[in-house]
Write a structure and sequence with these properties.
alpha/beta, two-stranded antiparallel sheet, Rossmann fold, single chain, 5-stranded parallel sheet
Length: 304
């Protein structure tokens, strides 16, 4: 089977669009799609310093690889940020992978650890949960967000880019829906408001399996070891459910993504959510203190 864009042999079948692409054309299509998303939502401006959160997984390393290419023609600077949670037997492989990859890409790379910032590792912090049902992933997500914010300020970063893809976006929507957290649904659209904290997801319109193929076809090494806590929450079940739907009904993820954008916009403007300033850290939230600071206080951890 030949590539639909050239005469080379097709290596990837994009079922939702009916396209058959060779490795080169597939790679070009993903770079262009990412650049289009960045432009459409005004995620990155010329002259920006972009802090790419790089964990060592396929998504973050592929994002770094693509943004580096885009930066050459769009005049912005990239710095890579890696957070060390202190998970024994897991993070060491990723730290070396990211370090080697950043050296190859000629990108500045900085590592920040939970232990340095909060005075504890993730494993140690889990011991402070008590009888709370909060998952390790929820705690880790809160600590990671605060650690990345701290790193961004220290490194003079204008915008933080994460490797969250369309699958992540859909999963998060369902989690918020099932937990009754409609306020977060109202904040899910990718539009970047002015004078607000700038966090962007350039892969928000790209399927996870396409990023996997991009990483393999471009020889991007990524961490093989899975996080020992990844199956504790409901996200894995939702991922499997969405993949089953997509396998049986090609394009359903794209349709769901478009619907969520409309729902998010409606919820945002209809609910008239008042954003306040956290009394502890100064970030925007809906209460007196943000969820990050509340979690840190409940766990008895240091504020970085």
């Amino acid at each position: 089977m030949k590539c639909d864009w050239c005469d080379n042999i097709a290596a990837y079948s994009r079922k939702y669009s009916g396209e058959n692409l060779c490795s080169g054309c597939f790679t070009n299509s993903l770079v262009r799609k990412t650049a289009k998303t960045v432009s459409k939502y005004k995620m990155i401006q010329r002259g920006d310093v972009v802090g790419v959160a790089v964990s060592g997984g396929k998504d973050s390393l592929s994002l770094l690889h693509i943004l580096k290419q885009i930066s050459l023609s769009h005049n912005f600077t990239i710095k890579a940020i890696t957070i060390d949670e202190g998970i024994p037997g897991y993070r060491d492989e990723a730290l070396q992978l990211v370090s080697d990859f950043c050296n190859k890409m000629q990108v500045q790379h900085e590592v920040y650890s939970y232990n340095e910032l909060f005075g504890t590792t993730l494993e140690e912090s889990l011991e402070h949960r008590g009888n709370d049902k909060i998952s390790s992933c929820s705690i880790c997500g809160v600590l990671r967000r605060r650690a990345i914010d701290f790193a961004a300020k220290e490194l003079g970063v204008d915008v933080i880019a994460t490797g969250h893809n369309m699958d992540d976006f859909l999963q998060t929507f369902i989690i918020n829906l099932l937990s009754g957290d409609t306020k977060k649904i109202g904040w899910m659209d990718p539009d970047m408001p002015e004078n607000k904290e700038r966090r962007v997801k350039p892969f928000c319109e790209i399927y996870e399996n396409e990023i996997v193929f991009y990483a393999f076809t471009n020889n991007i090494p990524f961490q093989s070891e899975e996080c020992p806590h990844m199956n504790e929450g409901i996200r894995t079940d939702i991922r499997n459910f969405l993949n089953l739907l997509e396998n049986n009904h090609s394009g359903i993820k794209n349709n769901m993504y478009k619907s969520i954008l409309k729902i998010s916009s409606t919820v945002k403007y209809d609910s008239n959510i008042e954003r306040k300033i956290c009394s502890k850290c100064g970030t925007e939230c809906t209460g007196e203190t943000c969820s990050v600071c509340n979690t840190l206080i409940n766990l008895g951890l240091n504020q970085p």
